[in-house]
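hey so u asked for the seq, here:
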Amino acid sequence: MDSPQDTLTIADIRAAAERLRGEVIDTPCMPSRTLSALTGCEVFLKFENLQFTASFKERGALNKMAQLTPTERASGVLAVSAGNHAQGVAYHAQRMGIPATIVMPRFAPPVKVDRTRSFGATIVLEGDTFDDARAAGLALATERGLTLVHPYDDLAVMAGQGTIGLEMLAQQPAIDTLVVAIGGGGLISGVATAARAIRPDIQIIGVQTERFPAAWNAMHGGQRESAQATIADGIAVKSPGALTLPLIRQRVDEVLLVSEDDIEQAILMLLEIEKTVVEGAGGVGLAALMKHRDRFAGRKVGLILCGGNIEPLVLAEIIERGMVKSGRLARLRLDVRDVPGALADVATLLGKLGANIDEVQHQRAFSSLSVERAQIEVVVQTRGVAHIEQILVAMRGQGYKAERVG
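ran it, structure tokens below
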């Protein structure tokens, strides 16, 4: 990594910024008062989920393709991606009149596959993992004479992603810490290179999911194994790149891990507080602030909301699970007399107590209660944990045997 041609410089990133000017959105970087109060540090959010393809990935893809020769453009490009890089390549290839082939693993979220196909790219679904898809893609690129647009291990791609760092420090010069998601390492390599050139004393913190901790292993000498899947599918990479890993070692201060629960909480917080949708990878930065509060106390932290392409059904499930955890959705079990009107009485009482019924199960046969009793399970919307306790106390006061079971 010593020679000029095999490392990444601030000059590369500034040149990329000129190529991208007017071609991608200069996304806002805004302070969040509420998240700052909740995390104990000053939080600034870079809304890369507002790009046309809802991800930062189009920056690197465009910077790479803008430098292709006429012959390379005519032959076409190939990309291997679980989704966001695929969309970035397909969208800008379509704009530039370049034929694009995208190889995606079979598990790639349908919303990302469909969106990529809508940009006119040829889609090849191959392999159960990103690594399987990558092997197939490399072979296909060689076979067809296509230029590979790598999702992260390419200096031109890394330079494009680094333009985010230039923008953030121009928009919010007070930022003294950047927290960046790590998959293959292209984003953090570019952002760290830009930020350190502008502010040598700035702290650069990487974040990975516990299920794909390759960069964490490299930085800590760890041996944690990768899992099969994660909600943060955009950073589900089993090994960082040959070009990105040395840059991570040189220019990143620390890599932190967050759990799936941490990421779900962050997605829900951003939806509720900032009214913005992020995918798993887009939520890991906030997840790290919440999990490692002491590490960031009092600092001015920039977070990159790097993508917003999340499956609607996944988002719906996260919302529902979040409501259960916060007590705004609860399952109550009641033991009642099995007589006409008993269910109506329960519903009336719950209504008076301010609980909105979502679901009811009225059980006779599948119960250990005596034959003159029935078991009712209701899922109710409430105002939170304290409200649930008020409901239970009131129902017990009316003679019902009531308990919370979920």
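The chain has a mean pLDDT of 93. DSSP finds 17 helices and 14 strands in the chain.
lmk if thats what u needed
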